[in-house]
Specification:
With about 350 residues, the protein is of the alpha+beta class. Helix 4 runs antiparallel to helix 5. Strands 2-4-5-7-6 form a five-stranded mixed beta sheet, covered by helices on one side. It contains ten helices and seven strands.
């Protein structure tokens, strides 16, 4: 509504300006000039001024809205990045704390196994350090690590754990959040009583684009139905990376977790750098701003040149030269802004960058 009022006001201001310019050029008395003037001309002037002002301020308002949206998206992505980093950083101390608890128990029971456990733990911990800063890792890597981790647990619990874990995935491009399998295996061990007579049975398999991890239940009374850190950490990381959600099924005899298998590398925007999409949007806005600035200058300057030409020597219409020359440049600028495929500079830059990448 504000834009409409500004446009109407500008139209009313423009009409007397046109009247004054025409009066000066006519060299007639005010009364004679007024009697001879056609009202339709001033109506046209009002409409032109109204439409030009409305178009300009509408574009400006839309531009401000887009800027605000970009700022909001940048802020949200930055917040997501910080939250995701915090979740990943929880993995390191959590894993080490639980592993040292296992090692402490093993030292009392079997010092020789404790030494072997320490060696295996160092290899497993190296994988934790390598993967914890990644958004996604291949399912094959996680399956391999899960088997290594199960072997580590078996040094402590021996025949109290029975696990079925595939050697590789059905699709090499499948990805999951890093250390999710380790957290689920650890969660199963933590919440259940383990014994050779009633071993913890764990099975990992794929089903309809999901990675299913199921384990038997023999819940410790001291823990009850608490899900703990691991499940919540995995759930929140998936929520930040994908619209697909982790599901939990809990029955009397089984506890089942289903993790979505992702196929693309999803990158959380870094808080310190702008994303490529933001840069493209910023460039687009700058191009539009430059074009409309040129257009407004053209609409203001060319009529003034016509006026100067008329006042000095109307026998030679030299105003056509700047009007057509500038107009052609303005038309080319419009093609570059509204038809991105026309921008040969961008195509060449992309071509050179791809060529350099291949050479490297």
């Amino acid at each position: 509504m504000q834009i409409l009022f500004i446009s109407i006001a500008n139209g009313f201001v423009f009409v007397p300006v046109v009247f004054l310019m025409r009066f000066i050029v006519s060299h007639k008395a005010v009364y004679v000039f007024y009697q001879e003037e056609n009202t339709a001309k001033y109506l046209i002037a009002f409409v032109v001024a109204f439409l030009a002002t409305y178009a300009y301020y509408s574009f400006y308002a839309q531009q401000q809205v887009q800027k605000q949206k970009i700022k909001e998206q940048t802020f949200l992505a930055g917040s997501a990045s910080a939250k995701f980093d915090a979740l990943k950083n929880q993995l390191d101390p959590h894993f080490l704390f639980n592993s040292l608890n296992v090692l402490t128990g093993l030292i009392d029971e079997n010092p020789e196994k404790a030494q072997a456990f320490t060696t295996a733990l160092s290899k497993v911990y190296r994988y934790v350090l390598e993967q914890k800063n990644k958004e996604l890792v291949s399912l094959d890597e996680e399956l391999n690590f899960a088997r290594t981790y199960i072997n580590l647990l078996k040094m402590r619990f021996e025949d109290s754990i029975l696990a079925e874990i595939p050697t590789r995935s059905s699709q090499p491009e499948f990805k999951i959040v890093p250390l999710s399998l380790q957290l689920l295996l650890e969660n199963a061990v933590k919440h259940n009583l383990l014994s050779p007579q009633q071993p913890l049975k764990i099975k990992v398999y794929e089903q309809d684009g999901l990675l299913v991890v199921e384990n038997s239940l023999n819940i410790k009374e001291s823990i009850g139905s608490k899900t703990g850190f691991g499940l919540e950490n995995i759930k929140q990381r998936y929520a930040l990376l994908s619209s697909k959600k982790m599901s939990i099924e809990n029955s009397e005899n089984q506890f089942i977790i289903k993790l979505p298998l992702l196929t693309k590398n999803i990158v959380i925007m870094n808080t310190k750098t702008m994303s490529e999409s933001y840069i493209r949007a910023r460039k687009r806005v700058d191009d539009l701003k430059e074009f409309y600035g040129n257009l407004i200058s053209y609409l203001l300057v060319i009529p003034f040149l016509i006026f100067i030409n008329y006042r000095t020597y109307w026998g030679f219409h030299w105003f056509w030269f700047p009007m057509f020359g500038w107009g052609i440049g303005l038309a080319i600028h419009a093609l570059k802004v509204y038809m991105p495929s026309y921008g040969w500079e961008d195509r060449k830059i992309k071509e050179f960058m791809e060529r350099e990448k291949r050479n490297n």
